[in-house]
TrEMBL record:
Synthesizes alpha-1,4-glucan chains using ADP-glucose. Its EC number is 2.4.1.21. Coiled coil: none annotated. This is Glycogen synthase. Belongs to the glycosyltransferase 1 family. Bacterial/plant glycogen synthase subfamily. Residues 288-435 form the Glycosyl transferase family domain.
């Protein structure tokens, strides 16, 4: 099949979160199944600085009423895959992808409405006639609509997939603030008050809708888990499915990881102890081999459970424990964590940083990985933790429920510690249970670590599921 993969960020090129991991790994895995994949993404300033990519097609123009939007198409290679970038400097030559610091650009709707359309024009410009147009998250959720209204004939046989990596970000904007869409009067019927919701458009116009774990797909079909799109999801119930993300073991495997001080495998954890010492040194925590280290790497948002983490920190600090957090995001959460790190310098280290090296150091050097999300479409870090024998402490939600088995629930298959209720008492009780297990049952703990390391969620398996979904879409 010919697959046009439309996405706003790709690992190794630009990344703000897990979407980028998928946008690299899935196209590569599909290519390995002999499909022809073309990635289209915006040409951000960060790309221009790193690659200064050459133009690979004539300039293109899209019109909105009389206004021309002229853009260039530039090509980058990603492990032999073609990545075409939509170069429209007014929209994309900026410091951030979606925001400067924490403030979203006010014209994000305009930027990504244009990009969603320009991606199709790009495919046409290089004569790539896709069987499948695979769109990802709200940034590209209008592409199925543009495909639907396209009258060039070029896409007559193309079907679309809309993958939801995070249903909470929907791209809801006042229609009058999206000049690019002004000629699309028919969209008036789709507005919620005066606002257009991009994700709702994706759900409505895509041939098939999927998300990144089977459990989150089920949650989207409930009033509580649908992010207020219950009606839209249930209308398309028969076309909604979940495919679990994979883990890229070529990057996330302690057997062979250039970011950590010493490699290790499931037969010998000496290297892991060295990684723990190195992490403690890096974060200026006391060098205490027997104190359990709980690590976290994430975007600092409500989604990741800070609503329950922050209220229980004082109590957690009464235990013999070290907490190592690397993340960027919500200024209020950052402030709180900085304060806690000042109050408990021996026990809590917080680096407000986006650092691949530190992410790997935390995965390798921690005993536990904390991911008590409010909701979690799939979650990648708990998979990385398993590969590093760092036992995840997670809430039973979304993809976390699909990937971590609780010690008490099924001792023979256990890989971590799981709790249910979204509140600080339940989280604290689960962390205490994990700490107790670590101290009381070191041998069992080591066995669970070995099992965790042997667990595999491969992109090959995920790609085969996508292949089936594409075939269904093609009828
Ligand atoms: N400060 C930091 N420094 C270095 N690296 C950092 C970092 N903060 C985050 N990262 C990295 O970004 C990625 C985060 O991936 P996740 O899947 O855990 O969450 P995210 O919510 O971004 O993704 C969304 O999309 C993915 C992909 O579908 C879903 O798995 C997920 O549930 C959904 O919320 C990981 O590779 C992590 O290491």
């Amino acid at each position: 099949m010919k697959i046009l993969f439309v996405v706003s960020e790709v690992e190794d090129l630009v990344k703000t979160g897990g979407l980028a991991d998928v946008a690299k790994s899935l196209p590569l895995a599909l290519r390995d199944l002999s499909h022809e994949v073309l990635i289209v993404m915006p040409y951000y300033q960060a790309l221009a600085t790193q690659f200064s990519a050459a133009e690979c097609a004539p300039k293109q123009i899209l019109y909105s009423e009389q206004t021309p939007y002229e853009f260039a198409i530039r090509e980058i290679q990603l492990q032999g895959l073609r990545v075409l970038c939509v170069d429209y400097p007014d929209f994309f030559a900026r410091k951030g992808l979606y925001s400067d610091d924490y403030h979203a650009y006010p014209d994000n709707a305009e930027r990504f409405a244009f990009f969603a359309h320009a991606a199709l024009k790009t495919a046409q410009a290089v004569n790539f006639q896709p069987d499948i147009v695979h769109c990802n998250d709200w940034h590209t959720a209008l592409t199925p609509y543009f495909l639907h209204i396209d009258d060039s004939g070029f896409f007559n046989h193309s079907k679309s997939i809309f993958t939801i990596h995070n249903g909470a970000y929907q791209g809801t904007h006042r229609f009058v603030d999206i000049p690019y869409l002004r000629p699309h009067h028919q969209l008036a019927a789709q507005l919620d008050g005066d606002a257009l919701n991009f994700v709702r458009m994706g759900i409505r116009y895509a041939t098939k809708i999927n998300t990144v774990s089977p459990n989150y797909a089920q949650e989207l079909l409930t009033p509580l888990g649908s992010h207020h799109l219950f009606y839209e999801f249930t209308q398309r119930r028969g076309d909604v499915s979940g495919i679990l993300n994979g883990c890229d073991y070529s990057q996330w495997d302690p057997v062979n990881d250039p970011h950590i001080i010493q490699t290790y495998d499931s037969k010998n954890f000496k290297g892991k102890a060295a990684c723990k010492a190195d992490l403690q040194k890096e974060l200026t925590l006391p060098a205490e081999p027997k104190t359990p280290v709980i690590g976290m790497v994430c975007r600092l948002t409500e989604q990741k459970g800070f609503g329950f983490i922050l209220p229980m920190l004082d109590k957690l600090m009464q235990h013999k424990v070290q907490l190592a957090i690397v993340g960027t995001g919500d200024p209020d959460i950052c402030r709180y964590l900085h304060d806690m790190a000042q109050r408990f310098p021996q026990k809590l280290a917080f680096h407000q940083d986006f650092s691949v090296r530190k992410a790997h150091m935390i995965e390798a050097g921690s005993d536990f990985f904390l991911m008590p999300s409010l909701f979690e479409p799939c979650g990648l870090n708990q998979m990385y933790s398993l590969a590093f024998a760092t036992l995840p402490i997670v809430r039973a939600v979304g993809g976390l429920k699909d990937t971590v088995v609780d010690v008490a629930e099924d001792p023979q298959a256990a890989t971590g510690f799981v709790f249910e209720q979204p509140n600080d008492q339940a989280l604290l009780a689960c962390v205490q249970r994990a700490l107790l297990f670590y101290h009381e049952f070191p041998e069992k703990f080591a066995l669970i670590q070995q099992r965790a390391m042997q667990t595999r969620f491969t992109w090959q398996a995920a790609a085969k599921e996508y292949e089936k979904l594409y075939l269904k879409a093609l009828g």
